[in-house]
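Table S2 (continued). Query chain:
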Amino acid sequence: MDALYRKVEEALDTIRPYLEADGGNVEIVEITSDQTLHIELKGACKTCNMSHMTMKSGIEETIKRAVPEIKNIISVN
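Corresponding output:
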């Protein structure tokens, strides 16, 4: 596991308890060579009508603050 992947996982670990409390989760699909992170929302997060807000204000903000090397974040859902 490379350092960038590990840093993203650590950032996601800080918000996972909140996602899991609502029956959801998030998983890294890939990090491309142009520093684009592809993630997949899991469980309840996949179908929740607030998932867009979770993506923008929760997941993206957390990752960009903790891992500024990531340029884009795309949900594959």
